[in-house]
Design goal:
The protein is α/β, with parallel strands linked by helices. The protein contains 12 helices and 19 strands. Helix content is 33%, strand content 21%. A 9-stranded parallel sheet has the order 9-7-5-2-10-1-11-15-19, sandwiched between helices. Strands 14, 16, 17 and 18 form a 4-stranded mixed sheet that branches. A two-stranded antiparallel ribbon has the order 3-4.
Length: 419
């Protein structure tokens, strides 16, 4: 038995939550491996949207066990609110069905404050101001509070004191802001500990137990390949490993156990915030796609930039993720256009590129080389028009990967029927 990883192939917002929820019907376990409450995964059931920030997107299926790995940074308020909301929706407690690794790192109030002030100071990298980058920084600097630190009062206070001293120096020295006091922090940590205690576990050991029982495990990532801290369009990236290799690190599983990688891409391209975007459409078509696709961030509500599908990006994403299957979402959004364009290569300084340049600065200089395909009208149910099928086949041929899932709407069952 192998593990199946779900990863985004663009700049996030590809519809991974929708794919995870769809696939979770045939899985026993969904495990989230990185990111924080900066991610917003939307699941639509019977016309109602459910947004997940930290819990695995498959948790609305009552028979699914959810795991949150040490690669995830935990916003205490958001996590408790999501647990209570899912329990209310499903009518069942999550205790015994949700397990959170005790090694996971906590996002503190001062991390969020720093994020907000840093965004102002640097003119805006485009973060969600949720304190995610600052939390990962503290983890690597060995100042962070981990979930397991909360279960010994003396150790919790000492760990909180060290973290707070470090961060208060930043707040004062870099931003000129007053320090946070430790006692309100300790009070919040104790309240959180009481509520979260039933869910704390050793996730690698739990995964092994579930594996021995024959469980089918789905690994869920947040954001997308080109927001990866190493391989994304730096510095306009997130602070964790969004690629399939991040699943191994974030959950504590051997890389060879991941035998299936489903890469999720929209039928077009979007990104939020600043950074290069070679195929961006700053025109009526781009605005039409934004409105028709409801392209606004699930976490922030920010409008997304929209553009044509970018195959050089996807080729690289398929390569470094080891993608074995594609899931194409929002094909319905670009229906009704007379023609649809796809960037097949870039031109840079007289040379043609099949992959993006290493230096993101050069992304600003590339000129997309487009292939124009015939558009199609709206779908009849879940049947693809010939032109839409040709579009999907063109993508498959260019990337060398089969699209096993083609989504044509928000609802669970809005999956195209293909031969």
């Amino acid at each position: 038995m192998g593990y199946t990883a779900i990863v985004g192939l663009q700049w996030g917002d590809e519809g991974k939550g929708r794919i995870v929820d769809y696939l979770a019907e045939n899985f026993n376990v969904v495990a989230r491996f990185q990111g924080g409450a900066n991610a917003g995964h939307t699941v639509t059931i019977d016309g109602r949207d459910y947004i997940f920030h930290l819990l695995p997107s498959g948790m609305l299926r009552p028979n699914v066990t959810g795991l949150i790995g040490t690669g995830v940074v935990l916003d205490m308020d958001v996590l408790i609110e999501e647990i209570e909301r899912v329990e209310d929706i499903t009518g069942r407690p999550l205790e015994g069905r949700l397990f959170i690794d005790g090694r996971a790192t906590l996002v503190m109030p001062f991390h969020k404050a720093e994020d907000q002030w840093e965004e102002r100071l640097r003119g805006g990298l485009g973060t969600t101001k949720r304190g995610i980058g600052q939390t990962y920084r503290d983890r690597y600097a060995r100042f962070a509070l981990r979930l397991i630190d909360l279960f010994n009062d003396e150790h919790m206070r000492e760990a909180a004191k060290k973290c707070l001293e470090f961060n208060n120096q930043i707040l004062g020295g870099r931003y000129g802001k007053p320090p946070f006091a430790i006692e309100p922090i300790i009070k919040q940590l104790k309240q959180f500990r009481e509520k979260i205690a039933p869910f704390v576990a050793d996730v690698p050991v739990k995964l092994k137990e579930l594996e021995n029982q024959g469980a089918e495990v789905l690994l869920e990532g947040a954001q997308g390949t080109f927001l990866d801290i190493f391989f994304g369009t730096y510095p306009f990236v997130t602070s964790s490993h969004t690629i399939s290799g991040g699943a191994s690190i974030g959950l504590g599983i051997a890389p060879w156990k991941i035998t299936r990688v489903i890469g999720v891409t929209k039928a077009y391209t979007t990104r939020v915030g600043k950074g290069p975007f070679p195929t961006e459409l700053d025109d009526e078509i781009g605005e039409e796609i934004r409105k028709k696709g409801h392209e606004f961030g699930a976490t922030t509500g920010r409008p997304r930039r929209c553009g044509w599908l970018d195959l050089p990006m996807l080729r690289f994403a398929v390569l470094i993720n080891g993608v074995t299957e594609l899931a194409i979402t929002k094909l319905d959004v670009i229906s009704g256009l007379d023609e649809v364009k796809v960037a097949v290569e870039y031109e840079l300084d007289g040379s043609r590129l099949k992959y993006p340049p290493i230096n993101p600065v050069e992304w600003q200089k590339v000129k997309p080389i487009y292939k124009t395909l015939k558009g199609w009208e709206s779908f009849w149910g879940n049947i693809l028009p010939f032109e839409a099928e040709d579009y999907v086949k063109f993508i498959e041929k260019e990337l060398g990967v089969r699209a096993t899932i083609v989504s044509v709407g928000k609802e669970r069952d809005a999956i195209a029927k293909r031969d």
